[in-house]
Amino acid sequence: MQRIHVICEGQTEEMFVNEVMGGYFESRGIYLQPALLGKPGHKGGNVQFQRVLRDVQLRLLGDTSAYCTTFLDFYGLPENFPGKAEALLQNDLNTKSQTICTVFSKQLKEHLGANAVRRFIPHIQFYEFEGLLFSNPQKLANESGHAELQQDLQKIRHQFETPEHINNDPNTAPSKRIQALIREYDKVIYGSLIALDIGLEEMRSECALFNSWISRLLALSDNDI
Length: 225
Known about the structure:
Layout: E1 2-8, H1 11-26, E2 30-36, H2 49-62, E3 67-73, H3 84-88, H4 93-112, H5 114-117, E4 120-121, E5 124-125, H6 130-133, H7 137-143, H8 150-158, H9 174-181, H10 187-198, H11 200-206, H12 208-219
Helix pairs in contact: 1-10, 7-8, 11-12
């Protein structure tokens, strides 16, 4: 069984990998091993490049029979994170993603070497985890206990080409939009519950960049290192 270390920005992403992605991948011959960014016991966040570098180095150089990927939100990345400034200059979402992932991987290669980094698959979620929840506004409303907000959440979704296009802004990012309607929304408590109800397949059909990441990981089941 192929193993993939998944470096997660926070507890919600870690739970998502365990509870939503884990069984889906295991049935296809891939074992996902998520871990929070940083030292054990840390809650995640503070996505500085040096912290990510240390974690990637630990996985790639300490476990040479496995792959490694990241599950980080673009919205929360510091401005000096490799590739973010260049990505912000782009208008097209696909180009933004390609830009930051290319620069990010290049920086890792300079520190860790090309041989190790060939087992690394970068993923930066646009614009944050909550964007995935807009794949199905009805289930987002129902699972959060606010079925009456379905139309409001659907209206937000209809303003954008895909859930991954919802703004990268302190006031209008996906999580901020949810919290404006559902004051008690807590991503750790509600995030995975809503995601489980929506399901991985619907998220893949609605979110092209997310789907591309999932597809690349699934393709590793046929590869040998």
